[in-house]
């Protein structure tokens, strides 16, 4: 009997350890919300999973910048399956604003081998009823990559709530974003070097996520960003900006111009706004 009891305690402890990665309960609840979102897509369908987690303000890149809820409402529930899991998460000191990133895969149905892969970023905000809801959802595609088997990690740089200033938190971050945008067309490496966190993660189409500013900025392309919106946590220590970006490429001596969307997540580090996640679709 004692052996059975001991075995039961060991099994319970093991599963508890698997379920509880973070001492920060708010951060853990954010990760749990992302996992529940993915689980609903698996157990029910992708459309209904999104609609259960969206609010009227939710934005997605589908592929243009659009209100996410009407986009998903127009679709019919299908058998295709979008599967994903978080591998990184961070949260504001307010405990009600944060984001997750991780790999995704797409299959025509749950029994077939995935045919597409990529990475996502989801920004979440906790509602008055305590439920996490999506503010923005965006992703890129890249080559085959396993969705399962990854440990969820978080930032080694703790957030610190901002002190109220003459400007609102939103105006403050908007000004920083504008500063970055002005630097970008003339020297993209300088702009990112100036504003990037030591923990920055870059997300670029057809490439795996990168943490190297030099690697990502080793390009002759010219980037011109046009911001659409800035949203900041109540604590003023984390926020995001998104909009469109015009990219001018040199191809065999000729210029080619294309447009994309961007999502940039900022975090206050020692009182200074730094980019912690940067996605161009």
TrEMBL record:
This protein's name: DUF4440 domain-containing protein
Signal sequence extent: 1-19
SUPFAM superfamilies for the chain: NTF2-like
Pfam families: DUF4440
DUF4440 domain segment(s): 220-275
Keywords, in A-Z order: Signal
